[in-house]
Design goal:
Layout: H1 8-25, H2 51-66, H3 76-98, H4 116-131, H5 136-157, H6 169-178, H7 199-218, H8 222-243, H9 256-279, H10 287-292, H11 296-312, E1 314-317, E2 320-323, H12 324-337, H13 339-363
Antiparallel strand pairs: 1-2
Helix pairs in contact: 1-2, 1-9, 1-11, 1-13, 2-4, 2-7, 3-4, 4-7, 5-7, 7-9, 8-9, 12-13
């Protein structure tokens, strides 16, 4: 098999995305967070709403280079590889949802089935099955078909408020397949932002990343490639923004306009990093993020396990029992920086903590792949 070459700008982009993910996922207190570090309540897009599509975009970008070893040929070994990788990531997501495995009388009747890793697993697997069989032009046509199909599906699937939280077809479909008790409840009602149906357009995010990875992989002139990527990304943003007037930009529904809007931003960001790193050779300026660009799924799992662990450890604070998570925030970060800045500093401290773990693994050349 041929060894895939790596593109440093993709690794750096991945590292930046992981660092931002940790910041938005681990504030000291959710009631004291700067607004850009929160998800949009429903329609709209904040910097936090870019984290997940950026990661899926990078999954697609990396696939272009990873599939070199398969010579872009759909062999039996390729399908086995895709199946087992998708399966392992999905199972890891199930385990993360179940942790710390404390269920009263082992009652799993309200266990959430889907999640971030489950979506990555499905989006990766479905994209791979298409990418290995179709060329760039065909993948662009498939992307267009997916986004138009999803728009029609949501529009025709609900007679009242097709893009509202209570009545959208995504919620109806997931309730039918998974049941209300197995959905996320963070919106106040059973609705899963990483549900089954909304995984379909997330495949489109992976495809956009793959197309951009293909441009980098086949280019003979980085200057020209960066210009084409920037123009393409800007075009996606404009189309996504305009489409958003009739099909709102919405992360929870992963609307088609959201796919194009965030995919365009990701494309421009990758083009800028490629310009700085591969053309201007500012590689050393980004070395910190190179570390975060390794073992990305592992650190997502580790950070999730860590947070769930310290939430379930109880400590006494001012005569009352609280979680070790809140205890650390209240006793160390609030006295030092106040409520809001202490909450941000708490998150940044976790970025440093996990970076040190990854740096040790990086130095030891330890790679944990799912």
């Amino acid at each position: 098999m041929s060894s895939p070459r790596r593109i440093y700008s993709i690794d750096i982009f991945r590292g930046m995305t992981i660092a931002l993910m940790i910041i938005v996922n681990t504030p000291g207190n959710w009631g004291h967070v700067y607004s850009p570090l929160l998800h949009a309540k429903w329609h709209g897009c904040t910097p936090t709403d870019l984290v997940f599509p950026f990661f899926l975009f990078l999954v697609g970008s990396s696939m272009r280079f990873a599939f070199v070893k398969w010579h872009y040929f759909p062999s039996k070994k390729f399908y086995e590889h895709i199946f087992w990788r998708s399966f392992s990531i999905f199972v890891a997501g199930i385990i993360l949802n179940a942790f710390p495995f404390i269920r009263q009388a082992w009652d799993w009747s309200d266990f959430r089935i889907m999640g971030v890793l489950q979506r990555i697993s499905l989006a990766y697997g479905l994209s791979a099955l298409m990418i290995i069989r179709f060329d760039f032009k065909q993948m662009l046509q498939i992307l267009t078909g997916i986004l138009l199909f999803y728009w029609a599906l949501l529009w025709l699937g609900s007679k009242q408020g097709p893009f509202e939280i209570e009545s959208n077809f995504v919620r109806t479909f997931d309730i039918l397949i998974l049941g209300e008790s197995h959905l996320y409840r963070g919106f106040g009602i059973p609705f899963d932002p990483e549900g089954i149906l909304s995984t379909i357009p997330s495949v489109g995010t992976v495809i956009i990343g793959y197309l951009m990875g293909g441009m980098l992989h086949t280019t003979k002139n980085y200057n020209d490639c960066v210009k084409r990527m920037f123009i393409f990304g800007f075009g996606l943003i404009i189309i996504g923004y305009l489409w958003g007037f009739i099909f709102p930009i919405n992360k929870a529904l992963w609307t088609s306009s959201y796919v194009l809007f965030t995919g365009g931003i990701a494309t421009i960001f990758l083009s800028l990093l490629t310009y700085l790193i591969d053309i201007k050779h500012f590689k050393k300026s980004f070395w910190v993020f190179e570390v975060f660009g390794t073992n990305s799924i592992f650190i997502f799992i580790l950070s999730g396990l860590w947070v769930k662990t310290i939430i379930n450890i109880k400590r006494e604070l001012n005569g009352e029992m609280t979680s070790a998570y809140n205890y650390l925030y209240k006793t160390i970060f609030v006295p030092f920086a106040g409520d809001v800045n202490g909450s941000l500093l708490f998150a940044i401290s976790h970025v440093i903590f996990f970076w040190l773990i990854l740096f040790w693994m990086f130095r030891k050349k330890i790679q944990i792949k799912l």
